[in-house]
Specification:
Structural class: alpha/beta
Shape: globular
Strand order of the largest sheet: 3-4-2-5-6-1-7
Number of domains: 1
Radius of gyration: 15 Å
Largest sheet: 7 strands, parallel
Strand content: 15-25%
Number of helices: 3
Distance between the termini: 42 Å
CATH architecture: 3-Layer(aba) Sandwich
Order of helices and strands: EHEHEEEEHE
CATH topology: Rossmann fold
Helix content: 25-40%
Number of strands: 7
């Protein structure tokens, strides 16, 4: 605990803002993370789960992004796990959380790195501001990175 009484967060949190195509950007990010050996969990709203799952299969003709959904038999061995519930407590040893949702994710503190993807829409920006405050209130100082529109 810090002198202010707030638990010190160990996670490095990044907000990547201005993402024109969040699913495409997420695929490119996961390709890079997987190439480096990272074990990533992606929290994605149920409405986008199927679309992200399909994009990971078809994102690049030269890459195979092995992944599964939370609760499937391959979860422990998969480098990428997709979940629609904003809670990563039960997902085991992971290196990074990528959040495509509008809510904060329970259990984020147990991961070394958190990446929040924020689109161009007003509602997404408003929910990102709430999550930014949530991380600060937990003793973390999130970084912000303006991204381009290229997802290759």
């Amino acid at each position: 605990m810090s002198s202010s009484g707030v638990a010190e967060a160990r996670s490095r949190v990044e907000f990547r803002v201005g993402v024109a195509d969040p699913l495409g950007y997420c695929c490119a990010l996961l390709r890079s993370a997987t190439a480096k050996g990272a074990r990533t969990v992606v929290c994605v709203p149920q409405a986008l789960l199927e679309a992200l799952d399909q994009r990971l299969w078809t994102f690049s003709p030269l890459d195979f992004l092995a992944h599964c959904r939370a609760g499937e038999a391959l979860e422990a061995r998969s480098p990428i796990v997709l979940c629609s519930e904003p809670d990563v407590h039960s997902l085991g040893d992971r290196d990074c959380l990528v959040n495509l949702g509008v809510d904060g994710v329970r259990g984020w503190e147990s991961l070394p790195r958190v990446i929040e993807l924020v689109g161009d829409d007003a509602a997404g920006k408003a929910s990102a501001r709430r999550r930014f405050r949530m991380y600060r209130d937990a003793g973390c100082e999130p970084q912000t990175l303006e991204v381009g529109h290229d997802t290759r």
